[in-house]
Design a protein that fits this description.
It contains nine helices and ten strands. Helix 6 links the parallel strand 7 and strand 8. Helix 3 packs across helix 4. The two termini are about 35 Å apart.
Length: about 240
């Protein structure tokens, strides 16, 4: 990738990641436009979480080049992090802090104003206004997942990366995730949703990227995914 495209939210060329002797990603090439909502599908171990962590600069690639909004992640990590929100499979929440204190800490890390009313409003968007002052160690897994969603979107990121956001959520929580994605799309932001909930991914996104063994097996509109060989494979792990 000799030069970046000003119209790309994400570009990757020859992206590979190795952990010891095992390759999590093997030569990924992709380009995602601003405003796209992408469902990232694949079985456990296919490389979905690794790809999201690389885009968020939480881990470095072994080979290849990645740019986010034109900025190389290797040299402009701070700039990239200011524009990206990541909900990881292990969200960085602190059990001994309250929900409000967790968001205040995140706001300080992002360089955002730490305003009580703004933080409480963020909790309200994920259905947690009544437990703002409760310690996270008292939360159920679903409540912690909701708080992690609030944290990931606190800075109104231009690129939202969601790793299995529907996990551990009740029906109301599932609806909240759908609403969050709808707001992201309405604002013209970019979203990548890694999920085992294939129906949810297809309903909420306009493009599918499927991974298997660290390689791209499908990349195209959601309407074409059902007729692809990758969809048959997905039926075995969904």
């Amino acid at each position: 990738m000799s030069s970046s495209s000003p119209s790309a939210a994400v570009e990757a060329a020859g992206l590979a990641k190795r952990y010891g002797r095992a390759w999590a990603l093997r030569g990924i090439d992709l380009s995602i436009r601003p405003g796209e909502a992408v469902a990232l599908l694949g079985p456990n171990g296919s490389g979905k979480s690794t790809l999201l962590r690389i885009l968020a600069t939480a881990t470095r690639p072994t080979h290849g080049e990645v740019r986010v909004f034109g900025f190389p992640i290797r040299t402009d990590g701070d700039t990239v992090r200011r524009r990206v929100g990541l909900l990881s499979d292990r969200p960085p929440l602190y059990d001994e802090l309250t929900a409000l204190e967790n968001l205040a800490f995140a706001a300080a890390m992002y360089g955002l104003p730490v305003r009580d009313d703004g933080l409480r409003a963020a909790l309200a968007t994920v259905g947690l206004p009544r437990v703002a002052d409760a310690r996270v160690r008292t939360f159920s897994q679903g409540m912690a997942q909701r708080l992690a969603l609030a944290r990931a979107t606190l800075q109104s990121p231009d690129l939202v990366l969601l790793d299995e956001p529907y996990n551990a959520l009740d029906v109301e929580g599932l609806r909240l995730v759908d609403q969050l994605l709808a707001r992201v799309r309405a604002a013209g932001k970019t979203a990548i949703l890694a999920t085992h909930h294939i129906a949810k991914g297809l309903a909420q996104c306009d493009r599918v990227i499927a991974l298997s063994g660290g390689r791209v097996t499908f990349d195209g509109p959601t309407a074409r995914f059902a007729a692809s060989p990758a969809a048959d494979e997905a039926g075995a792990w969904a």
